[in-house]
Amino acid sequence: MKDYLKEIVDLTSDAQINPGWAGHSRNVNTIKSISIHHDASVRPHDYDSIARYRQEANYHTQTLGPGLQYHYKIDNVGQIFKTRPHETWLYVVGSNENTSTIAICLDGYFHPPHNQIPTREQYEALGQLLIKLCEQSPEFSATYPDVRPHRDFSSTACPGDRLAPWVFAIQSKADVLNIPAEAVYDWPEYQPQPAPIIPKPVDAVTSPTYDDLYRVYLNGKQIAAYKNVQGAYTKVYDNPGAIVTFKGQTITVPPKPEPIEEPDIPQPIPSGAPVSSPEPVTDVPAPNPTPTPSEAAGEAAGEGSKEVVRTALIGGVSYLISLGLNYLTGLPENETTVILTLVLKGIDKYIHENPNIKLKGISPL
Ligand SMILES: [Zn+2]
Q1: CA 149 to ligand 1 center in whole angstroms
Q2: In angstroms, what is the span from residue 156 Cα to ligand 1's centroid?
Q3: Cβ distance 64 to 120 under 8 Å?
Q4: CA distances from 178 to 76, 104, 126, 203, 337 (A)
Q5: Which of 4, 52, 106, 123 would be 179's cystine partner, CB 3.0–4.6 Å?
Q6: Which tens digit of pLDDT belongs to each residue from 262-277?
Q7: Chain-centre distance of CA 318, in angstroms?
Q8: Across-strand partners of 215?
Q9: Is 21's pLDDT higher than 60?
């Protein structure tokens, strides 16, 4: 429930509502009762409360006496206005008890023909104000049983059939807090809202979650997971048909990159070191500065036999390829010869460019 007492608006400085009134002063210790009223005017849902009270003050000034003849007003949203000081007695209950009562008036018309019901805000504010006056105002003696409806003082319908019974029943604090179920909030949006349920913050994530992994699946079964997508790609290349997912999304794996061939880098020969490489690096064999006679003869003999083998081999291969081409293509023999020549030149070129090819007995043409 709102604390309506915190928001009491003091209108006692308003000369129209609370003009000076000589002869109506009193000592607050003479206060013996608290009278409850309605203003018998229809209470709209939305209205200017202070304008309403000034208008009522004008009417009272013309018919009863100077200023508004209530000490407190309570509007539809439960706003409490202090309109007259307790030290001023008013023409309010129509009896000789005017001088000893505090008058509280609720906005509304609580009997026929309008039969308005006090708002729940009005009940809550009235209850809190009554507790303050009855329990926290030692300067006068009036307390709960002294809270009475206007009609208890004199012959009047005030404060209406919808409110008078509730006031008659007041004997204690519990009674003023016992708000009739029929009273509803006129402006529920002005009421304190329950505190929103704030979800407990989740601990900050300080390490990658499992969702951050690149997962490799093969035939629906996970076969690996990697933090780096390259690792996942490699796994896919090794497992044809495997797929990679990341955070549930399938990733298209790029084609496997071709391995980069390392170019042959000639190794420098350290000066003074013996030349031990058996592989010739040029067409010209490295001269042997001091061949022994037997070695030189062996070399020459070797070269000669190599030449024979080479010629025979080329001839045989040529013949076989020529037969094959004739058979496969049906081309005339002179055309297969042209093709054959080209093939042999290609082989020769290949051997030239790849001196490490070990085609036994054949050296470049
Ligand atoms: Zn009244």
Answers
A1: 8
A2: 7
A3: no
A4: 18, 18, 11, 46, 123
A5: 123
A6: 666 666 655 554 555 4
A7: 80
A8: 225, 245
A9: yes
Name which of 129-133, 148-152, 287-291 the model is least confident about.
287-291
Tell whether the model's pLDDT for residue 319 goes beyond 70.
no
Q: How many whole angstroms from 98 Cα to the centroid of ligand 1?
A: 11
- In whole angstroms, how far apart are CA 184 and each of 75, 121, 319? 14, 8, 116
d(CA 322, CA 341): 10
How far, in Å, from the CA of 64 to the mean position of ligand 1?
A: 13
- The overall average pLDDT reported for the chain is 83
pLDDT score of 188: 93
Q: Residue 92 Cα, ligand 1 centroid: separation in angstroms?
A: 6
How many angstroms separate the CA atoms of 95 and 38, rounded? Answer: 17
Q: Which residues of 134-164 are buried (b: 16+ CB within 10 A; e: fewer)?
A: beebeebebbbebbbbbbbbeebebbbebbb
SS3 label, residue 267: coil
Q: Where are the domains of the chain?
A: 4-187, 210-251, 299-353
The third-level CATH classification (topology) of the domain covering 4-187 is Lysozyme-like (3.40.80)
Q: Which residue has the higher pLDDT, 357 or 62?
A: 62
172 Cα to the center of ligand 1, angstroms:
22
pLDDT at 63 over 80: yes
**How far apart are the CA of 334 and the centre of ligand 1, in A?**
137
- Tens of pLDDT, residue by residue over 177-221, are 999 999 999 999 989 887 778 887 776 666 656 677 889 999 888
Q: Tell me the one-letter amino acid at 110.
A: F
**Cβ(338)–Cβ(322) under 8 Å?**
no
Sheet holding 101-106, edge to edge: 9-10, 80-82, 72-74, 101-106, 33-38, 147-149
74-106 pLDDT, tens digit per residue, is 999 999 999 999 999 999 999 999 999 999 999
